[in-house]
Each structure stands twice: as structure tokens, then as C-alpha cells.
Amino acid sequence: MNLMYQSTRGDGTKVTASQAILKGLADDGGLFVPESIPMLDVSLNDIAKMSYKETAYQVMKQFFTDFTDVELKSCIDKAYDAKFDTEEIAPLVNKAGVYYLELFHGATIAFKDMALSILPHLLTTSAKKNNISNKIIILTATSGDTGKAALAGFADVEGTGIIVFYPKNGVSRIQERQMVTQKGSNTDVIGITGNFDDAQSGVKAMFNNKELAKVMNEHGFQFSSANSINIGRLVPQVVYYVYSYTRLLALGEIKEGEAVNFVVPTGNFGNILAAFYAKNMGIPVGKLICASNENKVLFDFFETGIYDKNRDFILTSSPSMDILISSNLERLIYNIAGCNSHATSEMMKSLTVDGKYSITDDMKANLGDFIGGWANENETAAEIKRVYKESGYVIDTHTAVASAVYHNYKKTTNDTTKTIVVSTASPYKFGTSVMGSIDDKYKGMDDFDLIDELSKVSKIAVPKAVEEIRSADVLHSTVCETADMQKTVERILGI
Averaging pLDDT over each range in 197-201, 207-211, 378-382, 447-451, which range is the top one? Predict the structure, then answer.
């Protein structure tokens, strides 16, 4: 039987997985969700004997039921190959008494590679399945990592083009350099003068513009998304939660059925939502600890039941989490509202009009899986230093937010449940902040000047992704006002 998908704001109209992947965003502006979250059909002890690719197949076949086994295995094989610098794909390492799930071993040294390595293959397969002849234009906003991972995934993929918007002054130098040096005849990168939320809102507005869609179709184009609003991006993220749990089983650290906690640094809520889906597939999870930086809109939501983006936007050392509109939270809202699309739609309307919404007491009672925490800039820096001093292990700023939140959680709750901290980026992406936290003598030095120093400190070779961009030519230098994003897209497409 096919698992069908419907919109969080819709009338119950169903589409297949491949149709949901192609569209990215539903016609009514909602996000696609499965009509139910499927269960794994093999035991966790059996999965513990499997490779990452084999685990990916066991998870994804439950969600992408209109893909044949051959199609799905082909997508998985093409995604999780030599682009990753370790056969494990997502190693689980025990440092300073904590398990860190390293999700940064792909081509762009950030967790977005885990899903964006496979999305182009899912998308092009979906286009063939649905007899799509239009060129698919990937339109995406990035807070730093999605952009480069999407660009790397879609560069020169036949039948596609990719346009990435990023906040010009809101990403690290390494992140920006990775994007603006991207090769590929079908790639475009544009800085905007606003912040990530401005970029994301501009992209959503274009997806929802029916007149633009009509003109594009007349010219042989259609949009799809590489952001985590695309279900084809979210489902591959479920895999590494299943995989990491079964690694603990394989190591004999836990028994089958024993719960673990996950601590996830997140701004857009996609990464921790994938953990929630993994729990609903049958992974024993105790607490899902949502770690925020000083843009703590999610922490406040879990504390109060009120989501309120009406606050100052703070630029931090963990820029991929500098987000005030957490798009993927809508999927959780839909779930805790009893899959009530009308209620979800009304709350999202309130967010657009008033910048906030409140959930009911009944909905709040359904949030028992989650707990929020946050770390300020000083706590983040102190955590990088503490982990390094205790173990010689170097973590990036986003991982440090999660690690600091976990240690505070453990101190206040005495919860001794085995816990996995999700490590979302290589420290090389944020060298200035990381090295400045380890020792004051590095403060003020440039990211690129610190690369070799970081290699000495961490005893890890400079990743290829960083080495390549040291002297690469800048190929993308366009900057536009937020209000001109659509005009820029139209110019690129020649429509």
C-alpha cells in the first residue's frame, strides 16, 4: 500500500511521496506530512548489523512507497558514496563522557549533506515517475549550510537549476566562501541585505505566487525546494537517528528497548522533527532536547506554549540557528493538534499577521517528548573550551550550544539516560569562534589564517571542502534587496 501525503493546511487532498517531493510546498502554503508515520518492519537488533546505506533503505522504503526497490536503492547508493570521508557516514564518538553523532563527514562538512546528497536523486527520479518535462528550479534560502550542500548536490544535475539566497552579513566567512565559489552551469547564489527570516519569507512568497508559477510553466520551469520544508529532505534525516540508536545497540551500550535522549541544536526545527519521526517509527527515545542559541524562540515556545517571533534578531557565533521563524515546527503543530489542518492554518495565519500564535492546553500536553534549553554566547564558548580541555575533542559552535544545554539539563534533572548530542558541523566551518574559545591568543584572527592552527589543535587534517576554497575564484557576487528577490529570479530565468 502506498503511504500518501497531505498538507498541514489543506482539505485532506492526498499526493504520493514523489509528488510531494516534486512540489516541495503544498499549493495552500502548507507542508506535506505523511498521513501516518510508518513503523519499521525489522527489529532494531537486526538494523544494528546493517551499514548506513542498508539502514537508510529500511527507513526510506517505509516513507517513499511509490519508489521501486531498484529506484530507492539507486538513490541511496549515489548519495552515500565517496563524497563522505568515512565509510560509517555518520560516526558516533564517545568524548568527555558524551556520545557525539558526527554528521559533518560529507562534501560540505555540515549535517545538511546527510539529506542533500540524496535529494537531487529523489527529485530527478520523482520527475521521471510523474512525466515532468519542465526544468526543475530549486529555490532555497539558507542560514549558512543548506545553501552550499544544496549547491553541491544539484550542481550540473541534468534537468535542474538551483538558486540560493543567503543573508549577506549573516553567515561565517567559510560558509560564504563555500557558496560564492560554487561551480556548475546551473547554479546561482545571491546575497540579500536582510537576515535569514527575510530570505525564507521571500522564497515562500515566490512558492505561493500562482501568477509566477503560471509564467514559469509557460517558459518550461517549475519550482521545488531543497529546504527542510521538502519531505524529501526531512525523511533522510530520520535515518541517522535510527542508525545512531542501533550503533549503541551494536556496541552493547544499551539493550533493545532501552531509551536514549537526543540533544539537537536547531533553528528551523527540521533536524529535531526528524528525531520525533524516528521515535514514532519505533526508536525508544526518552527526551528530545531542543537546543537554542540566543535566538531562543523555540525555548520560549516549549516553556510557554506561545510562539512569538516579535523580538530582536541576534547574530551569534552559531549562525545556522539564527532563525526566528521555525518553518518545520508547523509539522509538529499539525501533529499535536490531532492532524487538524484548519487549526494549523489559523495559527500559521496568526504568525504571518501578528508574528505569534498560542497553542491550546491540550496541544501543550502533547509536547511531552520535548524539552527546551538554550545557551548564550559565553556559555557556548566555555563549552568548546571545556570539551577540548577534558578530551582534546574540538566541537563547532552549534554542537557546543547542544552540548552546553545537555550539561545544564543533566545538572538540573539528574537524568542519567544515555544521551546522544547531535554534532551538526565541522569546527573548520567556524574556525574564528572555535579557536577564540579555546585560547584568547587566536581571537581576531581570520578563519582562513586559523585553518592550519585548528588542524594542529584538533589533530584532524584540513577537510577537502575547506582546502579547496582557500584559493578558489569567486563565481557569484550578486547582492539584492529583500524586496527584489523575485525580480532577481525572473532575471536569472529570463522570464
Answer: 378-382
If you compute the radius of gyration of the chain from its CA atoms, what whole number of angstroms results? 21
Query: Is 24 a domain residue?
Result: no
* Nine cell digits for residue 425: 558541523
Determine, yes or no, domain membership for 132: no
Domain assignment present for residue 253? The answer is yes
> Cα(37)–Cα(97) distance, rounded to whole angstroms?
33
- Determine the structural domain holding residue 251 and report its residue range: 92-109+232-462
Distance of alpha carbon 439 from alpha carbon 266, whole angstroms: 26
Model-level pTM?
A: 0.92
Q: Report pLDDT digits (tens) over 24-78.
A: 889 899 999 999 999 999 999 999 999 999 999 999 999 999 999 999 999 999 9
Q: Is residue 121 part of a domain?
A: no
Give the full edge-to-edge strand order of the sheet including 92-95: 92-95, 98-102, 419-423, 260-265, 285-292, 370-374
CB atoms within 10 A of CB 95: 18
| Averaged pLDDT, 328-351 | 97
Q: Which residues neighbour 10 within 8 Å (Cβ) at sequence distance 6 or greater?
A: 26, 28, 30, 341
Contact by Cβ (8 Å): 152, 123: no
The domain that contains 422 carries what CATH number?
3.40.50.1100
Instruction: Give the pLDDT of residue 339.
Output: 96
Give the separation between CA 384 and CA 393, rounded to whole angstroms: 9
How many domains is the chain built from?
1
Contact 297, 326 (CB under 8 A): yes
